[in-house]
Specification:
- The structure is a single chain.
- This protein is of the alpha+beta class.
- Helix content is about 20%, strand content about 30%.
- It is built from 19 helices and 47 strands.
- Strands 14, 17, 18, 19, 21, 22, 23 and 24 form an eight-stranded mixed β-sheet that branches.
- The protein is globular and about 90 Å long.
- It starts with 5 loop residues before the first helix and ends with a strand.
Length: about 950
């Protein structure tokens, strides 16, 4: 070999190294797994369903995958199936060995990336069942690969366009971007430009799509989004948030909640910033503007949506209305303006705008009344939105975007009420069921349009489900016949059939400071957005937090709305106090191009969880019926106690128990088959009544079976075992009356949606509320639980304690510096029958118990306000150390780490006491520990 040229020597060595690696790994996997638990073995034939078709994994495909990893400079991307869902630690360990888990596909299957450094060892041997390279067609959106219309809609005819070049978005593997990327793309296309850290766009002839997919490092190719289309086709009425606002005409302000201190992002075509409705009012006098971030664009649609959210009705009395009559939902909220026409489908620009709005301007919620893309399928764009809402998306330069709720209009593709296509629609669109705009997102709040005058959904409002069968829209809000702030140029946008300016306009325009009638789900979404602004103000006041710094989870906001929504049922008796909630007795309401449209008891595919109830959601906050928790792994469990005798549900029958679980799920991989479940982390909710009976959540459009297709009983659904979800409706329709049915319960938990709701009637007493992880592919998973009384929860905000109790100087200042996490946001510690449930993120974490609240839970209130000596005893499955501080800043007592610990203190009437609990060094991160706590008056 010494006589060979240097490059030949290098090539030979590479071949030898690759051959040795493949042989070693294949042999290791075939050998007995001595001393290892449940070793994985390569299977002869594993069939994995992808959106692009079936892919078979075998020893031969595994060998080919490993060989290709050694041969490609950027490594290779493929599919791997493991023996079980991978834990966080296992994913990290595989990454250190050169095998990175990119995303979850389904079952125990993941998209993975292997580098040249891939190491074969016993860990890989134990976990792996099989691998296969992704073929070029597996990396391309199927309609794009087949040459049919790339928008994925029902009519895929594309005659005469087969030779036309396409504008596509190409996603590369992390690490596969270098100086030659542009040249590689330019070899198969033109107009190449970078989008973000991993994505490029290019114009590629249809005949070159396969060549583009075969380029090194390519993960996914999909069509670039079509032009923005605004949802603005029908009229709407006023939304009923009067009780929540309690607006004073005399004071020109909300005595209740008007969104004061809340910042709302309006992603639309532009706002007429000169409109007086967006002014800041001081004692009825305009003293400034509530538009904090402005944009030069002015648009009728954007002005209307902003007016519904935050208009104050300043000009109402001068234009035919009463004083402040045409104000919006949150007339004191502040607005941040983003021109969606300028942002378009530029995902980095969208991400950077979100980052700036949140981190620099304090944005708390954003409204999106537009159709983001023509495809009804789960795309990379939908994945980005889910990731942002969850809080794990980043900007181009790697800055994490904080989690905030996003509200979307459902769309106006429901079709007309005569069974024909929607007015102004083209032949390539989907109508009726399966017609949601960006409805494939899991974490966004999707809003349909409700007609208050007809007491039913508006005929054009898009209907669910999503293509994988999930329940959407989330809820409905008034979207018909509303007068709101407007802007008029004398022309109408294309497809706009209902915008009506006031009579008597003179001159050539444009006309400012006017009010208009308009319609559509575009105007239902901002109703919800404005209500959220009001609710966030209530949340901040109730929990004593600044929501710009310590906001609730987006799933909490969504959960509040869904938990308190008025269930639209076919036989509900009208409520004389709330005539807008009356339901039509004649069903179906109407039929569209797909079939009959009507509501059912429980959540349904037309109205979601029902009609928004702003004041009911505010009451849930005021009653502290919110728990935010986390499940750290598959089969992890959190249990709470619900005392029915002490709970009154103002929006439901007192004899009923109602609990709602919501979580912001990890983004799905667009390679997942569009009709397969897109749920990544599957949580479950079960209620157990005082007699031991289990109550399960609503199931809509699904049955659950085992791998053999046999329907599973609820008792047979064991965590960590594979299940098959079978939707009743299959896309793209049509849908007949025999296909539709009401939601059902008691058959088991939901394995399709990231929201579960249990409504049960049972005996008074202590109910158990059990939240568990059925299958977590991307653990840990935060969740929000709505409906469990916070009477069994103690909570605190360390930074507020610092201010109010003046403890910071000696105690909490040093604690916050040493353990920053304990001072980040509102902390909740749930109490079960025996005591608190404690969870520590690491050995440096601390749990803080305000003893005043603990005393109120466990003892008679009179004992808690009487000076005397108390004894606190904790018994736990792990040794705990205790330190007790007074609100005056003194260290009162300590107890060394032990399984049973106690401290004594003499309470002073003007002081509070804070018990700081420390875990042992070997504490398991994320594990919930049930601790028995007793508090008693000590004998002299």
């Amino acid at each position: 070999m010494h006589d060979l040229p240097a490059q030949c020597v290098s090539a030979v060595r590479a071949v030898v190294r690759r051959t040795m690696l493949v042989a070693a790994l294949t042999a290791a996997m075939a050998a007995p797994a001595a001393g290892l638990p449940t070793p994985g073995r390569l299977e002869d034939s594993i069939v994995v369903r992808l959106r692009t078709g079936a892919l078979t994994l075998s020893p031969a495909t595994t060998s080919a995958f490993l060989g290709a990893a050694q041969a490609h400079a950027y490594g290779v991307v493929g599919i791997a199936q493991f023996t079980h869902l991978l834990s966080t630690a296992e994913r990290a360990a595989l990454a250190r060995r050169g095998l990175t888990v990119v995303s979850f596909i389904g079952g125990n299957t993941y998209r993975v990336r292997a580098s040249r450094a891939l190491a074969a060892d016993t860990l890989v041997r134990r976990l792996l069942r099989g691998m296969a390279l992704l073929r070029p067609q597996d990396r391309v959106e199927p309609k794009l690969w087949s040459g049919s219309a790339p928008d994925g809609r029902r009519d895929t005819a594309s005659a005469g366009t087969q030779g036309a070049p396409l504008r596509v978005r190409v996603t590369f593997s992390t690490g596969a971007i270098d100086n030659a990327t542009r040249e590689r793309l330019a070899s198969v296309g033109s107009a190449v430009e970078r989008v973000n850290a991993r994505q490029w766009r290019a114009t590629v002839p249809r005949a070159s799509i396969a060549a583009a997919a075969a380029l090194d490092g390519v993960e996914w190719i999909e069509p670039e989004g079509q032009s923005i289309r605004l949802d603005n086709d029908h009229t709407r009425t006023e939304a009923n948030v009067e009780a929540l606002q309690n607006f004073s005409i005399a004071d020109a302000r909300s005595l209740g909640s008007g969104g004061a201190g809340i910042q709302v992002g309006v992603f639309d075509g532009g706002i007429d910033e000169s409109h007086n409705d967006f002014s800041l009012l001081t004692a009825g006098v305009m003293t400034g503007s509530r538009i904090l971030v402005s944009n030069p664009a002015i648009d009728m649609h954007g002005t209307m949506t902003a007016g519904i959210i935050a208009g104050n009705g300043y000009n109402s009395a001068t234009q035919g209305g009463t004083q402040y009559q045409w104000r919006g939902m949150a007339p004191e909220a502040e607005l941040l303006e983003a021109n969606i026409d300028a942002i378009g489908y530029d995902r980095p620009m969208f991400a950077e705008t979100m980052r700036k709005f949140i981190l620099e301007s304090g944005m708390d919620v954003s409204n999106h009344s537009y159709e983001p893309e023509s495809s009804a399928h789960y795309s990379a764009n939908a994945a980005q939105r889910d990731s942002m809402i969850r809080g794990d998306a980043t900007t181009l330069d790697g800055v994490l975007i904080p989690a905030r709720p996003q509200v979307y209009s459902a769309g106006n593709d429901g079709g007309s009420e005569s069974g024909t296509t929607a007015p102004g629609a083209t032949s390539t669109e989907t109508y009726g069921f399966f017609s949601l705009d960006l409805g494939e997102t899991k974490n966004g709040i999707l809003v349909g349009s409700w007609s208050s005058s007809l007491h039913r959904i508006v005929g054009s409002s898009s209907l669910g489900p999503t293509w994988d069968g999930r329940l959407k829209p989330d809820l409905v809000a008034p979207g018909s016949r509303v007068t709101m702030p407007g802007y008029w140029t004398g022309t109408k946008p294309p497809g706009d059939l209902c915008s009506t300016p006031p009579e008597g306009l003179t001159g050539s325009g444009p006309w400012h400071n006017i009010y208009m009638l308009s319609c559509g789900t575009s105007l239902a979404a901002p109703v919800v957005t404005g209500v959220i602004a009001d609710l966030l103000q209530v949340y901040g006041a109730t929990y004593g937090v600044d929501v710009n710094v310590n906001p609730p989870l987006p799933s909490t906001v969504r959960g509040l709305l869904l938990h308190t929504a008025h269930d639209v049922q076919p036989t509900t008796s009208p409520d004389p106090a709330k005539p807008w909630l009356a339901d039509a007795a004649t069903l179906p309401w109407f039929s569209n191009v797909d079939g009959p449209v009507q509501p059912y008891a429980g959540p349904d595919l037309a109205t979601g969880f029902g009609l928004i109830d702003a004041d009911g959601a505010a009451n849930a906050i005021r009653n502290r019926m919110i728990i935010e928790g986390v499940i750290d792994a598959t089969c992890g469990t959190r249990t709470y106690t619900l005392r029915t005798a002490a709970i009154w549900f103002p929006w439901h029958l007192p004899s009923a128990v109602k609990v709602t679980l919501v979580w912001d799920d990890a983004a799905s991989d667009p390679i997942t088959p569009e009709e397969d479940p897109h749920l990544v982390n599957d949580l479950d909710l079960v209620l157990i009544d005082p007699l031991g009976t289990k109550h399960y959540p609503w199931r809509v459009n699904q049955t659950v079976a085992d791998a053999g297709g046999n329907t599973l009983a609820a008792s047979a659904e064991a965590c960590g075992t594979p299940v098959v979800v079978k939707p009743q409706l299959t896309p793209p329709g049509p849908v007949s009356s025999s296909d539709l049915s009401a939601a059902h319960s008691q058959s088991g938990t939901d394995h399709l949606n990231n929201v579960e709701q249990v409504v049960a009637i049972g005996p008074a007493g202590n109910w158990k509320v059990v939240v568990s992880g059925f299958a977590l592919a991307a653990a840990p998973q935060k969740f929000s639980l709505i409906g469990v009384s916070a009477a069994r929860i103690v909570y605190h905000n360390p930074r507020q304690i610092c201010v109010v109790k003046q403890v910071c100087t000696n105690i909490f200042l040093s604690l916050c510096q040493k353990y920053p996490d304990i001072c980040h946001g509102l902390k909740q510690v749930p109490f079960g029958p025996r005591g608190p449930e404690m969870m520590f993120r690491d050995a440096l974490d601390r749990v803080i118990l305000p003893m005043g609240q603990v005393c109120a839970l466990l003892l008679d209130a009179r004992q808690c306000t009487t000076p005397g000596e108390f004894e606190v005893t904790l018994r736990a499955p792990i040794p705990l150390a205790l330190t007790l501080y007074s609100s005056a800043g003194a260290r009162v007592a300590t107890a060394a780490r032990a399984a049973t610990t106690r401290v004594r203190y003499r309470a002073q009437p003007d002081l509070d006491y804070l018990l700081v609990v420390a875990p042992p060094p070997q504490v398991r991160a994320g594990q919930a520990y049930d601790v028995a706590l007793t508090l008693r008056r000590a004998l002299p």
